[in-house]
Amino acid sequence: MASSALAGEPEPGMEDPAKVLELPDVEVVGITPLPTLGLPASEVPGNVQSVEDEQMDRQESLNLPRFMNRNLNSVNINDVQNNPYQPDVTYRGFSASPLIGTPIGLAVYQDGVRVNEPFGDTVNWDLIPQAAIANLDLIPGSNPLFGLNALGGSLSIRTKSGRTHAGTQAEFNGGSFGRKTFEFEHGGSKDEFDWFITSNISENDGWRDHSHSNVHQLFVKLGWENETTDVDLSYTFANNKLTGNGPLPYSLLQANRNSVYTYPDTTKPDLSFLNLKASHEFSKDWLLAGNAYYRSNIIDTFNGDVAEDCEQFATYAECLNEDGELSPSAVNRRSRSNEDGTGAQMQLSYLGDVFALKNNFTFGTSYDYGHTDFTQSEQAAAFTSSRGTVGLGTAEQTTHAKATNQYVGVFATDTLSPTPWLHFNAAGRWNQAEIELSGYGTDEEGGRTSLAGHHTFNRLNPSAGFTLQPLDAFAADGGPVKEMTFYGNYNEGFRVPTPVELTCADPEAPCSLPNSFIADPPLKPVVSNTFEVGLRGKLGDDIRWTTALYRTELSNDILFINVGGSGLTRGYFQNVGNTLRQGAEVGLQGSHGSFNWYINYSFIDATYQTHATLQNALGPETVSPGDRIPGIPQQLVKLGAEYEILTGWFFGGDLQYASSQYMRGDDANQLAQVPEYAVVNLHTRYKVEEHVELFAMANNVFNTDYSNFGVVNRNFFTGAPDGGTPERFLGPGAPIGAWAGVRVHFD
């Protein structure tokens, strides 16, 4: 197939291009969300980071966010909830978080389906089964082909199949903090049919008080294929209970790192996700692909919190402790979010030459529909001596919100190669987003307000870039530097206000998160503009290197503005003007015999570019251009290595360093920062015999006391019940922990 843009080009008619991306050992980058075909990495104008399942298996990371934090450039974790399955993941200063109220700037896809939730564009990492991941691409910049929320990047995940991952495997591991995990997977094929199944059951007591969690995941895929057609039907199920204890006041953290501020704080997602994907090769030059999906996620939450004041939810007597002294009153908040999503995507690709030039053209369209039914109730409560809540009377429903999202997209991309060493890429996507709201919320006086609203947004986002192999151009690829590629690109992205933001945008009527909604003033959509240039290549045959410089500016950025004196989660959403993320990435990875290693360095400069008056729990603050955006360390260093000490016995380790960061709420950069930290992890595995492998891992082996998150707040247990004492709240990192297990595999 002389005109194919696929790596390792097959002979005409010998292989379906749609199957190439199912093979984890092919260096192909998916250029659209639908995992059907892509470009060789050398032709992609961006610092894409690709991972195969073997890399994740070697390090024995608990889940996908932990692996990315330990390995990938510009990725960082904020443990806002202090649950390993509920992190805020940031990439180049943009977030993908499970928490409503966090400005989301990353789009996450599983087999071509966008899994950002319809209600708040949040990402529930516990619903992505790591055992089912075959490979993934972390794609930088505002790539318009990945639709809404791809402001700073996109994560495209592809799952295993019975043809690419045949065999049976079971493993068990356990250790610190009461963690016990059992995983099973089986894959195979016969004639045109293939099948794959994996399940994961994990129980964890947690290292902090009152922090038990469990994760139950199931993934099944059935496939059929012949020489020209490939069809896959997959089903993802998850039923989890996650406890997120959140940050601690500094005074309490110093006294007991294991303690919690208030509890309970539980989240129970229940996911059913069905995805049908198919492709058909009409000829060696034409490929049609598409998918259709249905995704249902019911999320129940229960939070025991400090009430705004003693009079609102309880009598004065109920605000007295056993000694007759004033203490803060409590409130139990329960919510249920029933989110259903369905949609389809179709794309047609032409791989034939254009004017005798190598070409890869794709045109497609997508439709996504989401419906959310959200309810919240509040119940007066009192605190126990350990700051747990006990309900006092009946709960009252304060919110019943309904939202529908309809997203339509039309996209096209073309990569044209005038020579074997020069490639031009152009792409564009037109998006229309229609959001309709109904139901009622509660205002400051306790009265009901209508949530009716209808909003429509649309925009055409372009992209253009190039890659150049200068050594090939001058026939000089015979020295120590090989496969050098210089690239540059410009692209634009688009994020529309979510239903959560639209129903909580009035500064005169702030809401509580998960949310007591009110009528909605309009918000403007967020638009991103990204420039990136970079250089990559190889030193000899064993060392790969990458460098990148990027700059992403957002206009009309949307932030959650905390209402002064009200704690962490009461406020409103507002357009605050322009923000900027710019930085540099350097990466090295290599292998020599049985020794593998990597080093990654990231510099991330995330700043406000406008004057604005914001609020935190202490009151108003004025932000000026150049002030750093909180929660984003400027420098990240990651390094790791693994060596085969004896035949079948591997030993490795890795280190993550993060520089200091400003606390969330300290947007004016006036308070002490969360200190820098470094964490070291070790892992080992030993192949006892052909089918049995023992493994072990230890995290934070030097038992470093560190925090990777901070927020400005008031400690209501050390001051007046209606005010509290201003104090730093920090998200403590987990102490030393160790686990060991056994893995059995049969082909």
Question: Overview of this structure, please?
Answer:
The chain has 747 residues and is mainly beta. The chain has a 22-stranded antiparallel beta barrel. It has a 5-stranded mixed sheet with strand order 3-9-10-7-8. The model is unreliable at 1-26, 310-320, 513-521 and 564-568 (pLDDT under 50). Helices cover 4% and strands 56% of the residues. The protein starts with 27 loop residues before the first strand and ends with a strand.
Low-confidence stretches: 1-26, 310-320, 513-521, 564-568
Relative strand content: over 45%
Tell me about the biggest sheet?
22 strands, antiparallel, barrel
Q: Give the rounded overall mean pLDDT.
A: 87
Distinct helical segment count: 6
The tally of strands reads 43
N-to-C CA distance:
33 Å
**Would you tell me the structural class of the helices and strands?**
mainly beta
Q: Determine the fraction of residues in helical runs and give it as a percent range.
A: under 10%
Rg (CA only): 26 Å
3D shape: globular
Characteristic key phrases:
22-stranded antiparallel beta barrel, mainly beta, globular, 747 residues, 43 strands, 5-stranded mixed beta sheet
